[in-house]
Structures are given as C-alpha cells and as structure tokens.
C-alpha cells in the first residue's frame, strides 16, 4: 500500500514507519521540518514532504495518490489545542476524501465513562471527525503505552526510581490496561490492509488489568529496586498531581496533565472487536513485566529510537535571518584557541548535555532548570537519546537541536520559559595547523520590557556561565587528546 504518515517525527510515527517498510508498504512522511528526518536510518527508503496539518494546501499535496492516511498528531503543548486539533482533523479528513484515499488510521485514547477532561474529549472528537469523513477509518484507542521513551513510561520510571516513599492520590488505585509499544505498532501496521467495510473505533490493550500502584510495584521488582512505600491520600487533585510529576520527572506539566486526567478514571478496554479484524501477535500480547524489561534494556543500550520529546514546536528563524526585521538582539560571543584537533573538539561539542553536563557552574544550571520546572517548563531532565551523537529535532535538556552541520556547527534553540527567544551556537574552525578554534555564540531576542530586563539581570553572570563553557569545553578536548580513554562525565 501507499501510506502517508502525519506525525512522522513523533514518538509513534518514528517507530511505525520502519514497521510499514518491513511489511512492504511505500511510505511518504510528512514533517513541518524535513530536516528532522535527515539522519534516520530509513531516510533513503521513504519519500519526505514538508507539510503542516493546519495547512489545507500542504495536506492536499501530502495525501495525493496515497491509499492509507496515518494520523498521529496532537497539539498538547498549545493552549488552544482543542480548536487546533479540531481544525487539523477536519483538514486531513476532507483532503483524504477528496483524494479518494482507501483508509484512515488514527491512534487515540480509550474513552472512560463519565465526564471527560478537555484533552480526552478532544481526542474523542478527532476520532469522530475522521470517522465521519466518508473514508473507511480505523480509530485505535489505547491507554498507557509502555515503551522506552514514551511519556507514560518516563513518568512511571522516574516516579518509582526517585521516590522510595511517596504520597499519592486516590487515582493510583484505579484500574488501567497498559499496552506495550510493540503491540501498538502491530495493530497500527496491520490496520493498513483492513477491508473497506471496516469503519469504527476499537479499543486495544495488553493482557494485564491492574492499578497504577501495582504497576509501580512491578516496575520496582523488574528494575531491582526495594519495595516502594506508597501512602494514598484523598486531597491530591489531577492538577496538583501534575505539578508533582512536573517536578519529579522529565515530563512537563503540559503532558502530565492529560496523562493524569486519563488515569482519574478506570481506563480498560470495553471490547475486543479488533480481534475479528486484526488477531493479536502470534506470540501473544506482551505482559507488563516483559514490556518494562524491554524498555529498560533499550535505555541501557542507548537504543531508544524515538522519545516523547522528539515532536517539538516548529522552529522560528534566527533573528539574523533575512525575513526578520526590527527589534533588539543581544549576543554573547566567545572564541578560544585550543591545541586539540578539530575532530576531538567536535566530539566534546556533540556530546554536550545529558550525563556530560554543560561544562560550567553546574549549580547555576541546576537552579535554572528547577525554576523552569516550577514555571511549567521542560527543565533539564529531558537528557538526550544517545550520549555521543545528536540529531536535528532532538530534545537536549531544555534545548532542541535546530541545526547540525557535522563536524562544524551545532545550533540549539531554547525551550525553557524565557521572555523571548534564545539560541546557543557552538562551532569548530580549523586554525590551519594541528589545533582548532572554538566559537560560541549565545543569541537572545527579547519580548517586551521583561525580555530586556531578563537579559540585563543575568548579564553579570555571563563571564562565569558562558566564559566557563568556552574554557571547559576546550579543556575537555585537550584532556581527551592527552588521555584518549572514554570521555568521563563532566559537570
């Protein structure tokens, strides 16, 4: 089949495409920024097109001549996500109908009984819009997805590992039915070849029905942790729970809220109708313990193909780009000559962040990260997928990799809460001999008076922060030249 995937740079989309290729399908991937797919291993086996689900023209171009439309998009990070998702689903539904597509496949969430939160109601509405398109549609509905890098798994992992004793809300006793990401991909892949008479919603889930409390305890057993002491209390509302998750785990408040709102109710599959059309995998559905084992193995091996943070907001142009005009721009530029060769210097630059840290005043970075978390931002705990190699579009602590010209330049775009837009650019220039020149540029475009005051208030610390980075990065590169043993963690 000819399949077009909206959400190709997201957590599920990035894992689904290799499965579709393995099944013999042709794939067209739609991305707002095609550069994010420049280094995926299956890049040369697919067609990549630029498109945005909110743009009717680009959506029409993307679905043209395609038989199957995979819709794996949501707008959790936007305040007007309900309107955005409604308009996007309507745009894709109409385009698929006009293009005479044979099938739409959408991954939503299991809808619990009772009053729905705005997030759950929006996911349900998107499914209804697609089902009413006139194109045969399969809406697959899942609860918690267990897999390395999923937001649900990261929340479970960090809560359990970091808190040997915790006070929890009553919803930890509600029943849920998690599903391994491998099983989700099994159903999504096979939905491409469903017969045309199949048009409806289907719950999918793993073989275990248990409480979130039980799942945390099972995680502790699999991870080799001591038994967790958990004391439920009745006063932690979903909003308060989200604040707690925001502080303790890498999952920001914007994602924690819909995750927890889905757990306030019992989220178990109400039907097994999907079995009539797509049988379970021949080896059976994966149990929770095994799903946790598989996810932890991927993390240990640094083999996490996608993460919840992969799908970021579209990039704004640098303020120095030709289409920008007006306003004030602040910069902090540093340049240091080093005896380290360009290749070694680049290896230090590309391994920055995550476990290697940011090479200057770790306490200041940590405090700034906690302030960002308290403000609902991403903080520093997103880390990185691979300790040595970066990819365009990847989340890196509170930054996102905007541009990567290996082995010369790395540009990061800030996603922390600041009154403006910020970038950090690190580059390597050969000096004509055996050494290199390290160049570092911090760029800040303020928004309003608050932006100007923000920059001026932190300017006195730039010598310590940015100056320290320049000195320590070149120092780390020189140390590697003298001692080529594997690079050690650096604050």
UniProtKB/TrEMBL annotation:
Chain intervals for the UniProt region annotation (Disordered) = 307-327
The UniProt GO MF terms for this protein read: protein-containing complex binding
InterPro entries with a match to the protein in the record: ComplexI_NDUFA9_subunit (IPR051207), DUF2867 (IPR021295), NAD(P)-bd_dom (IPR016040), NAD(P)-bd_dom_sf (IPR036291)
Q: Name one Pfam family in it.
A: DUF2867
Gene3D superfamilies, sorted: NAD(P)-binding Rossmann-like Domain
Residue ranges annotated for the NAD(P)-binding domain, each copy included: 7-118
Q: What is this protein called?
A: Epimerase
């Amino acid at each position: 089949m000819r399949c077009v995937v909206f959400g190709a740079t997201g957590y599920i989309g990035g894992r689904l495409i290799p499965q579709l290729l393995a099944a013999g399908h042709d794939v067209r991937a739609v991305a707002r920024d095609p550069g994010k797919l420049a280094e995926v291993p299956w890049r040369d086996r697919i067609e990549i097109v630029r498109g945005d689900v909110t743009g009717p023209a680009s959506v029409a171009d993307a679905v043209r001549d395609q038989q199957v439309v995979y819709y794996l998009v949501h707008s959790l990070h936007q305040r007007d996500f309900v309107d955005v998702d409604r308009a996007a689903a309507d745009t894709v539904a109409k385009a698929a109908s006009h293009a005479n597509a044979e099938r739409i496949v959408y991954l939503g969430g299991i809808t619990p009984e009772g009053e729905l939160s705005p997030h759950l109601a929006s996911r349900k509405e998107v499914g209804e819009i697609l089902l009413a398109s006139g194109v045969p549609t399969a809406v697959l509905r899942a609860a918690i997805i267990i897999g390395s890098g999923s937001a649900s798994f990261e929340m479970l992992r960090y809560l359990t590992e970091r808190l040997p004793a915790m006070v929890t809300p009553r919803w930890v006793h509600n029943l849920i039915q998690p599903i391994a990401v491998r099983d989700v991909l099994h159903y999504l892949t096979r939905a491409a070849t469903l017969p045309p008479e199949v048009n409806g919603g289907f719950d999918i889930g793993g073989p275990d029905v248990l409480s979130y409390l039980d799942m945390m305890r099972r995680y502790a057993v699999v991870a080799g942790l001591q038994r967790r002491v958990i004391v439920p209390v009745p006063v932690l509302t979903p909003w308060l729970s989200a604040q707690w998750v925001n502080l303790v785990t890498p999952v920001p408040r914007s994602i924690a809220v819909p995750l927890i709102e889905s757990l306030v109710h019992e989220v178990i599959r109400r039907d097994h109708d999907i079995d009539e059309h797509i049988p379970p995998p021949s080896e059976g559905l994966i149990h929770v313990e095994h799903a946790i084992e598989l996810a932890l193995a991927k993390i240990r091996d640094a083999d996490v193909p996608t993460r919840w943070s992969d799908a970021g907001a579209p990039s704004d142009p640098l303020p120095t780009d030709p289409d920008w005009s007006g306003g004030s721009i602040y910069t902090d530029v540093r340049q240091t000559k080093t005896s380290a060769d360009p290749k070694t210097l680049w290896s230090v630059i590309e391994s920055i962040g995550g476990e290697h840290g940011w090479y200057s005043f770790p306490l200041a970075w940590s405090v700034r990260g906690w302030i960002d978390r308290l403000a609902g931002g991403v903080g520093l705990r997103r880390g990185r997928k691979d300790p040595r190699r970066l990819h365009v579009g990847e989340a890196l602590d509170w930054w996102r990799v905007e541009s990567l010209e290996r082995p010369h330049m790395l540009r990061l775009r800030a996603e922390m809460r600041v009154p403006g837009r910020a970038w950090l650019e690190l580059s390597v220039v050969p000096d004509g001999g055996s050494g290199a020149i390290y160049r570092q540029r911090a760029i800040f475009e303020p928004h309003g008076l608050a932006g100007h005051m923000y920059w001026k208030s932190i300017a006195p610390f730039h010598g310590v922060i940015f100056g320290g980075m320049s000195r320590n990065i070149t120092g780390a590169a020189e140390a590697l030249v003298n001692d080529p043993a594997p690079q050690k963690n650096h604050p």
